[in-house]
Amino acid sequence: MEERFIRVQRTARFHVLGSPATARELWIVVHGYGQLARYFLNQFAGLSPDLCIVAPEGLSRFYLDPGHTRVGATWMTREDRLHEIDDHVAYLDQMTRELLQEAPPGTVVNVLGFSQGVATVSRWALRGLTRFDRLVLWAGNLPPELDRDTLRAWQGLVVDLVLGDQDELMDREALLGAAQRLEAAGVDHRHHIYHGGHKLDALTLQRLLDPR
After folding, report:
1. Residue 144: which of 89, 86, 78 has the closest Cα?
2. pLDDT tens digit sequence for 150-180
3. Most CB contacts within 10 A, which of 28, 41, 45, 70?
4. Category of 162 on φ-ψ map: left (φ > 0), alpha (ψ -120 to 50) or beta
5. How far is CA 85 from the centre of its chain?
6. In angstroms, what CA-CA distances link 106 with 55, 132, 157, 189, 206?
7. What DSSP designation does 186 have?
C-alpha cells in the first residue's frame, strides 16, 4: 500500500465580535476539543467594544452524541498530525492576515487558547507568520515537542498561564511544569489560578483581556 497526499482547497468558518476597523486590539480565541466557535465566542460577550474578538473553528467536525444532534470540532488528532498542524497554522495565518487588512496599521494581535486550543496556538505561535503581543494559555498543556531552545522564540511575548483550582482535566503540577519550561527558555510569563473547573472564568477573562 502506498500513502499519497494532495493539497485541496476547503472552507473554514470563524465568528467575530466587534469590528477590526475600530478595535484597539485584535484577540484570536481558539476553542477546545469538541466545541464550536460560536458557542465559545459567546463567553466573551460583554467585554469592551474596543476589542475585536475572533473565534476560528477547528477544521474537523464530528457528532458528540449517539443521536447525532450535537456537533463539535477538533483541531487535530494523532492521525496524520503533521499535515493537520500545517493546515491549521496556514488557516489561522490567512484568517488573521485578512482581518488585519480591515484594521488600522499597528493594531495589536493577542491570542488565547483554551484546552486543546493551547497546543494549537502554541504551535501557531512558533510555526506561523503572525506576530503576537500576548499569549494566554488556558487549561491546556504545552506540546511536548517544544523544548527550551524552541520556546526561546517567545522571548518578547507576555505569556499568561491560567487554570481553575478544580479543573478535572489538568492539575496545578502541569501548570507549574509549563511555567518551569518557560522560565528555562527565558520567556516572560505569569500564572493565574481561579476557583472553578475546566471552563473559562468570566472574572479572570475580563482581568486578562479587558482590565478596565
Report:
1. 78
2. 999 999 999 999 999 999 999 999 999 999 9
3. 28
4. beta
5. 13
6. 21, 12, 16, 23, 23
7. T
H-state helical runs in the chain: 37-42, 81-102, 116-127, 148-151, 172-184, 202-209
Query: What's the pTM?
Result: 0.95
pLDDT one-digit tens code per residue, 133-146? 999 999 999 999 99
Angle between helices 81-102 and 116-127 (to 10 degrees): 70
The x, y and z cell numbers of residue 84, run together, are 493537520
Domain coordinates in residue numbering, the chain: 14-209
Phi and psi torsions of 136, nearest 5°: -105, 120
Q: Assign a CATH topology to domain 14-209.
A: Rossmann fold (3.40.50)
Phi and psi torsions of 187, nearest 5°: -100, 130
The grid coordinates of residue 184 equal 528555562
